Amino acid sequence: MPIAVDDDRLRAARMNAQLLMGPPAAGVVGAVRGAAAVQAQDGRSARLAVRARTGGLVAEDVRRAVGEERSVVRTWAMRGTLHVLPASDAGWLVDLLGPVFVRRSRRRRVELGLDDHVCARAEDAIRDILSGGTSLTRARLVEEVNKAGVPVPASGQAPAHLVSYAALRGIVCRGPDIAADGGDEPTYVLMREWVGPWESRETDSALTKLARRYLWGYGPAAPEDFASWSGLPAAQARRGWELVSGELAEVATDRGPAWAPREFAEALPGTAPVPSVRLVGGFDGYLLGYRERGAAVPQHHAHRIAPGGGIIHPAVLVDGRAVARWRWGRDRETVVVEPFEPFSADLVSGLEAEVADVGRFLGLDAARLDLRGSAEAG
Length: 378
Known about the structure:
14 strands; alpha+beta; 3-stranded mixed β-sheet; Winged helix DNA-binding domain-containing protein; 5-stranded mixed β-sheet; about 20% strand
């Protein structure tokens, strides 16, 4: 018999799976692996994702893990987008997912002057340019590729597409950031030099590991959620799900059937006695990891969190339910919260504690809360 849960327990289960409730993760790697990866197209949001899943770390710990310890790595993976991954997983993930998105983006590359011949020549040039531990910004890398005789447009979208192509081919990944006007600027390095060699996995083995990692990080979930999150072709997503189906228990939710690893499903957490308040940054996995977000985001406020175009705004979660959107004030130290409905005094207290912890994590002298009145403003 399926295990029946209402939306409250479904949210609690998913928040625990994502390490946003319950015991915190053990360090940066634990947070990234437990969340099944952290989307990283916005660096500050990626660091905030680690904060929300750990206790006592600071942003510098994340930067150190990325740029010095190399325990986590930033490269293109699920859905062909930039993620923070455990370094030990980066190789097999790129081997599995890279070819999918290289094929899907070929037409656009050709439109930008990056046909197959140019890309093949650029691969060889990049290997030579970055060998021996060299790290270069994207602009410098494209400049050096052109000096090597490979015609790559230095403006427009071509440089970004060349770098993501090289990453999806397993040639480069992001290396250390360097200080630049307006923030940090990433550099690019040879992936095998940065994370070390890896052994290729047979496809079914990689699909099994990916599906298992997703279900432990996002369950209870449905096959279409896994397909949406991974970006795999339908046939491969189905195959990955089938390979782990014997490990799963069915969960009957108010939104249809879902599944979770049997050990997890048989001990689904209940709702917490005290409301759990969490500030999550943009593109957080808890809001991004499902095809349908209705359990977490009330339908009549969905456009406030996900306005379209792949954007997921920072959110205030209370017991896994999005109750407000937030943003930084002009001083970059004030957290401006726009509630969807009035907050109780208890929630305001929990929110103030979260804002203070965000400030501590980022090393701000004093992070302040600016709680706006109406949810419908802006």
